[in-house]
Amino acid sequence: MSIIIGFPRIGENRELKKALESFWAGKLTQEELEAVAKELRAKHWAYQKNLAYVSVNDFSLYDNVLDLTYALGAIPERFKQASGLELYFGMARGLENSVACEMTKWFNTNYHYVVPELSQNCDYTINPSKIVSEYAEAKSLGYRPKINLIGLFTFMGLGKITQDSSFENVFEKVKNAYFRLLDSLKALDSDLVIQFDEPIFSKGKDERFYGKIQAVYDEIVAKKLGKIIVTTYFEHSNEATEILCKSRIDGIGLDFLYGEKNLSSLKAIAKSGKTLYAGIIDGRNIWVADLAQKLDFLEKIAQEIPKENIVLSTSCSLLHVPFSKDSEVKMDKEILSWLSFAKEKIQELELLETAFKGSLNASEKQKWQENITINANRKVSTKINDKSVQERAKAPIKTQREPAFKDRIKLQHQNLKYPILPTTTIGSFPQTPELRALRLRFKKGEIKEEAYHQGIQEYIKDCVAFQEEIGLDVLVHGEPERNDMVEYFGEQLQGFVFSQNGWVQSYGSRCVKPPIIFGDVSRPKPMTLQWITYAQSLTAKPLKGMLTGPVTILNWSFVRDDIDRSAVCKQIALGIADEINDLQNAGIAIIQVDEAAFKEGYPLRKENIPVYEKWALECFKASTSLALPATQIHTHMCYSEFNDIIKTIEALDADVISIETARSGNELLKVFAAVGYANEVGPGVYDIHSPRIPSKEEIKQQIKLLLEVLPKEQLWINPDCGLKTRKWEEVKPSLKNLVVAVKEIREEALGR
Known about the structure:
The protein is an alpha/beta fold and 752 residues long. Helix 15 (387-394) crosses helix 22. It is globular.
């Protein structure tokens, strides 16, 4: 029988999101929240009933890494006054006087995890209650559970070691706590099945711990917990697989979709006699599987490993795809037939398993033939190819702005006349319930276009007035017309299609509905011109045009898999270039091209990075190269460690880059100084992912830290990211404090 690595937890209709936000708003009790969670787990296990096991502990109220941090008692000192869910959510969202832990991307996906802060001085008091209770739930419903647990090495590799600690000392303390946690699970069952997720192994050798892998897993096996499976995904993990084959574990899970080189490990696995958990159904993209092709691939694997030692699985957790196609009634039926979400992927897995190890009955043969027909039709569909787009993409494309930055910035300062430490925001303002209702009513045809436009204009007018009132230097229009920074553009580009309910968790209660790129991409008409020029007409201050960059649109979409991703990105870049040209010709002097997801597209293996960097960089520069010297190009990046990509950031040649730094002081900024970065930088001075309202003094202290690293002439002052997820009662005082803090810094430190 087959398995899945994990299942989405947000709910088919985002039930968990709604419950969490009601709980945080004080409208739902803890008992009611936990009841919603319990009901969702039962529903999700029901879809897994025909698999070898149901996955337990893949469900989370916020994040699985945070769950393990909490279970291991790795609690930073500033949170120890809290307990229970206040403590748990406090680490993710912050408490009144305690800044939240950092968040960053889960490998090269759009999911964010809460970064553990690991100290050798922590007492690591374990709390296994979540795992214990969920295991008992699954057993009570008659299921055979598989405990999903983030592996020790992945947890350590993703954690942040405090400055007063060494990796070795922290590793020993965390390992001991991890082992105590495992010991506490023994009483759950006489024969547990535990899946240890170690995607960190797919990044290649980490000299800090590679020498410890076999000893740690042999010690885990010696605890006689039951069946021990170690899974890796997102790339090949041949170095670690070689070590794991020498260990005493029972099985090894490998991703054969995004890690084709895992094939070279088959002989070692066969020799070891271990079970191979073959990741064969795509857990990261939404295209229907070509089951005949996958069956051929499995038969090749079976030439090395006996079929009885092969268990079929998803390539990774299904967390990264939507729940089900069941509610998709508006999408073009042909395109919908090409798609497969989490529920459908389990069905594909079951059908493939039967074909591989048994014989198909009449009903299954019909489904198999339907799959063959769908894949054949997709390849020849006229909806995919646009010859004019293909021809334009083949032509030479300008990718270099002229003149050089040092000459452009002088002209921009003369024209824009912004002060030292200019203040701005990243782009979006709160998406209120009234605003969402307005867009929904217009989408449903309940109100006419004139009424919709009037509502959007009123919001923009209020946004601009508020920004002028508090004294921001560079304004934005607030993005009231946009449901999502990628979805909004995808809706106006050819080659995109959208689901009604294809939500995917980004972090906590935050969900996104990724666009689906099914064919060649083009921009039929301007996408932002109407609203940006209207907003600029309301103020004499410079107002930023807000665009999402081609690499981010690509990385935050489900991308067609029949041509190379770089070719798709180039098509998007040409559309963004046309939009920039329209905006600057309409008098918009500052244009921000957000590349929030530039870093998350990076391959995990160092040897693959240069190829990605080359085409991603070329696509960004192709989108901005039409900008005139006087047009100031901004970009924004978030949740990135910049040390390893700083040279690429320089090569982007954006006039101003804003980055998220509020949760890390000035540490992330230091790399910009170290390499002599010359362009202007807007480090975030307060965390927008927390409902906390930063005080004026807190922001002043943050600015002073920034001034220790970069000169005042190079710095912009802004929040960490867009403000769409925050409430006005949080945004208004926060931005007022920001502006006052900057004015006082100018007076106190700069004499202005």
